[in-house]
Amino acid sequence: MTDLDDVYRAEYGRCVATLTRLLGDIGLAEEAVQDAFAVAVQKWDELPPNPGAWIVTTARNRAIDRLRRESTREARHAQALLLHQPDEEADVGPVRDDQLRMIFTCCHPALSPLARTALTLRLLGGLEVPEIARAYLVPEATISQRIVRAKKKIRDAGIPYRVPSSAELPDRLASVLTVLYLVFNEGYTSTSGSLVRTDLCVEAVRLTRVLADLMPDEPEVIGLLGLLLLTEARRPARVGPSGELVVLAEQDRSLWNRELIAEGHELVRRCLRRGQPGPYQLQAAINAVHTDGAATDWTQVLALYDQLLRFSPSPIVALNRAVAVAEVHGPALALAAIEDLELPGYHLLPATRADLLSRLGRSAEAVVAYDDAIALATNDTERAFLEGRRARLA
């Protein structure tokens, strides 16, 4: 059922967050929500008026049934708490407190950095293991193991399900920002299916706003919010009338959300006044240049990427910088800049190489690079875009 798939993607994270508050156990909450969706498959002939509330109520009842079958004192205590909880009809929706608690719980310093973000992406965004593995460019088995171990550690160590105190916030901040950034990225270019998952984009922006309200003096929080707003502003122009991918240079700028752009620019100016640059602030500044005026000032973008590469010397930043190099200094220098980059499984590296080779008139090599990119692309829309570019050369 397509509608049920949509509900799962939109409501899974919210429902797990709500059940975790009620149960105090992330693993049990996730199992209960999964059970509730299995019941929905059998019972829903059409969507109920409030699908999320139905899932939470059913999951709560399934959890009570399970706890009744358990004989431990902890199970009896949890069952008593659940039985005295009111129905969750009013809580399902933008349950910002529950989801913020979920993020901070999963980003506890006791967990490894990869485990923190993988677990949060799974529980908050409802992302599947292949989607998370793609975001990190690591094997799926690695992500599965990290998630299982992280849930066990949260349970065994008694890590509390709450937003930490002001003194504890800085220790969690980097992981929380990474999670929100990756949730948005998965929404902006989803691993599979259609190009965009609007629900994840909207949720990442909303939760980043909540975090900015919680930590208004943290420049990187403001920088991330600015980055997401300026990127989200371009989303309406990113997909053409037939669902095709439209690259930045070909987008109809009249479709961009000017209100979000104005807000994003103001946040970038706030960051500049602080004089404490960081990776998210620099990425926000790059997007501010892209959305300022009728055309991109690529010289300014390249200068910002030079700064960003000093803060975050990663292959992906180097690849993005090469795109700016091509616009300022030509495709030959850009091609040389990415020649030694290694990003196994990342389709945008051969796709960028193919574009640069094509611009240099090296069509046969470009076709081979497009074939490599097409083989790695998991999103249908991106794959169709690459196939179209390859067909023009062939």
From TrEMBL:
InterPro entries: DUF6596, RNA_pol_sigma-70_dom, RNA_pol_sigma70_r2, RNA_pol_sigma70_r4_t2, RNA_pol_sigma_r2, RNA_pol_sigma_r3/r4-like, WH-like_DNA-bd_sf. Pfam families: DUF6596, Sigma70_r2, Sigma70_r4_2. Residues 102-154 form the RNA polymerase sigma factor 70 region 4 type domain. GO terms for molecular function: DNA binding; sigma factor activity. Residues 172-271 form the DUF6596 domain. The keyword Secreted does not apply. Residues 8-71 form the RNA polymerase sigma-70 region domain. Keywords: Sigma factor, Transcription, Transcription regulation. Transmembrane segments: none annotated. The keyword Glycoprotein does not apply. Belongs to the sigma-70 factor family. ECF subfamily. PANTHER family: BLL6612 PROTEIN (PTHR47756:SF2), BLL6612 PROTEIN-RELATED (PTHR47756). This is RNA polymerase sigma-70 factor, ECF subfamily.
